[in-house]
Write a structure and sequence with these properties.
Blueprint lengths: L4 E6 L8 H16 L1 E7 L3 H4 L9 E5 L4 H10 L2 H26 L7 E6 L15 E6 L13 H5 L4 H16 L1 H5 L3 E4 L2 H4 L10 E3 L20 E6 L8 H12 L5 E6 L5 H10 L6 E5 L7 H5 L3 E4 L8 H8 L3 E5 L2 H6 L6 E3 L4 H17 L1 H18 L2 H19 L2
Parallel strand pairs: 1-2, 1-4, 2-3, 4-5, 5-6, 6-7, 8-9, 8-11, 9-10, 11-12, 12-13
C-alpha cells in the first residue's frame, strides 16, 4: 500500500530536549517509520538534527526567517507576557517563511497531508492554507487553577502580573470565538478535556481527544519491589504550581505511622530552598533525599527502585513523568485535575480531589500508607499501569493511531 506523504511541522524539536521539543522529536522519529515524512522546522535546530540517520524517504526542510528582534524582546523583559508575545511573533514569521518555501517545493513534490505537532497551541499555521488536508495537535492550552486554589498561596507565588493574567484570559476567550482556527484544520487533536471546552460544540465532529505525552516503553524497565523499605519518589521542576510542599508534608505525616518510608525528590528550581527548609522543619531530613537536576535518561534508575510516585501538581496540562513511573511499575498518587487526572484511573493508581491544601495533605498521606502496607494492591496497580502505557502511550502505538487518523482525514477529504 502506498505510503502517505506527510508534511510534518515542528516549531520546537530537539533530540536532547525536554517537554514540547522532545515531543516534536518523538513524533518525527516514529511517523517517519510509517510515512514519507518531510519535516519543516526552524533553521536553528539544524545542529541538533543534521547528524540523524533518516529513513529512506524522509527529509528535513530548515526554514530561515527573521526572529532576532523578538528573541531580544523575550530576553530583555523576561516576563510571561513578553515571552508569550515574542513566541507568537516568532512563530508567525516562521510559518509565513515556511509556506513560501514549501510552495516552491510543491512544484516537484506531492504532500498528502499537513500536521502541526508543535507548538501545542492554537496559533494558525500558514502551512494549513496550502490546499491540502491539515491537522493540528495535540493542542494543550487553556489550563487554569482548580476552583478552590485560584487565590491560594500557590497561585499568588506565580510571577504573572495582573495584566498578564488578564491578557491570557482574553486570549483564552478569543480562542473560543475564533472559528478560523477550526475552519483551517480538518482535524483538531486536543490533549485534555479542559482544552476541549475551549472549542464550540458545533465543531465536535472535527475534534478528537489524543494525549500529548508518550514514552519509549523499551527504555523503561518494569520492576516490582518487595522490600521492607518503601521508596516514594517525585520527579519534576521545583515551581509553585507543582505544590511539592504538599507531598513532603504528607510524607512526613505518613512517616509518623510507618518508619519504613523514604522519599527521593528529583529536580531543581526556584522553590528548592523553601522545600529544603520545610524538610528541616518537619525533622525528616534523614529520610528525604534531594538529588538535584538529573538527565531524563538517568531518572529510570530512580523510577525502577521506587514503589510509589507522588505528584501533587495543581495545574498540570501533561504529566509525562507519571507515564514514565507507570512504565517502571511505580504506582502514582496524583491530584485529580487536568492532565494527571486523565492519565491515571482507579485501575492504575490513586487520584486525590483538590479541595483544600489541608485535605490534600491528609488524603495523600492516607494513600501513601494504604499502598505501603498492601503489596498485593501495589502489584495489581503496577501491572495495570504498565499495560495501560504499552497499549495507549508508547510512541509506536501513538504513531499507529495517528496514521489511522491521517487515513480517515484523507478518506473524508476525497469524498
Amino acid at each position: 500500500m502506498k505510503k502517505i506523504n506527510l508534511l510534518l511541522e515542528a516549531f520546537t524539536i530537539r533530540p536532547d530536549g525536554i517537554s514540547v521539543s522532545l515531543i516534536g522529536y518523538k513524533w518525527f522519529r516514529e511517523l517517519e517509520k510509517l510515512t514519507n515524512t518531510t519535516l519543516v522546522c526552524p533553521y536553528y535546530y539544524k545542529p541538533f538534527l543534521s547528524k540523524l540517520k533518516l529513513k529512506k524517504n524522509s527529509k528535513i526542510v530548515y526554514i530561515k526567517f527573521n526572529e532576532k528582534f523578538f528573541h531580544l524582546l523575550k530576553g530583555y523583559f523576561q516576563s510571561a507576557l513578553s515571552s508569550f508575545l515574542a513566541e507568537n511573533h516568532i512563530y508567525r514569521n516562521f510559518t509565513k517563511a515556511a509556506k513560501k518555501q514549501i510552495k516552491k517545493l510543491m512544484k516537484t513534490n506531492i504532500y498528502d497531508i499537513h500536521h502541526k505537532v508543535t507548538l501545542v497551541d492554537t496559533n494558525i499555521s500558514y502551512l494549513s492554507t496550502l490546499g491540502i488536508p491539515s491537522i493540528i495537535g495535540p493542542i494543550n492550552c487553556g489550563m487554569d487553577w482548580p476552583k478552590k486554589f485560584k487565590n491560594s498561596i500557590y497561585s499568588k507565588r506565580e510571577k504573572d502580573s495582573k495584566f498578564t493574567k488578564y491578557f491570557k484570559n482574553f486570549v483564552r476567550k478569543k480562542i473560543q470565538n475564533r472559528s478560523s482556527i477550526i475552519k483551517n484544520y480538518n482535524k483538531i487533536l486536543v490533549a485534555t478535556k479542559i482544552t476541549r471546552k475551549l472549542f464550540p460544540e458545533k465543531y465536535s465532529n472535527r475534534i478528537e481527544y489524543f494525549c500529548e505525552n508518550g514514552v519509549d516503553i523499551n527504555n523503561f524497565k518494569f520492576q516490582i519491589n518487595r522490600n521492607k523499605i518503601i521508596n516514594c519518589l517525585y520527579v519534576g521542576r521545583f515551581v509553585p504550581f507543582k505544590a511539592i510542599d504538599i507531598l513532603i508534608t504528607a510524607f512526613a505525616k505518613s512517616f509518623k505511622k510507618n518508619k519504613n518510608l523514604r522519599l527521593t525528590i528529583v529536580g531543581d528550581g526556584s522553590e528548592k530552598k523553601n522545600l529544603e527548609n520545610l524538610v528541616e522543619q518537619l525533622k525528616i531530613k534523614r529520610y528525604v533525599k534531594f538529588t538535584g537536576f538529573i538527565l531524563n535518561v538517568k531518572t529510570v534508575e530512580y523510577y525502577k527502585n521506587s514503589d510509589i510516585f507522588l505528584f501533587s501538581s495543581l495545574r498540570e496540562s501533561g504529566g509525562g513523568v507519571i507515564l514514565e513511573a507507570m512504565s517502571c511499575g511505580t504506582v502514582p498518587i496524583v491530584v485529580d485535575y487536568a492532565g494527571p487526572s486523565e492519565l491515571v484511573n482507579k485501575k492504575t493508581g490513586i487520584k486525590i480531589k483538590p479541595i483544600t491544601r489541608e485535605q490534600l495533605i491528609v488524603d495523600f498521606s492516607d494513600a501513601i500508607l494504604k499502598l505501603a502496607k498492601d503489596f498485593k494492591l501495589r502489584h495489581k496497580l503496577a501491572m495495570n499501569g504498565r499495560k495501560e502505557v504499552e497499549e495507549n502511550y508508547d510512541w509506536q502505538a501513538k504513531a499507529k493511531r495517528m496514521l489511522k487518523i491521517y487515513k480517515e482525514v484523507l478518506k473524508e477529504d476525497n469524498k
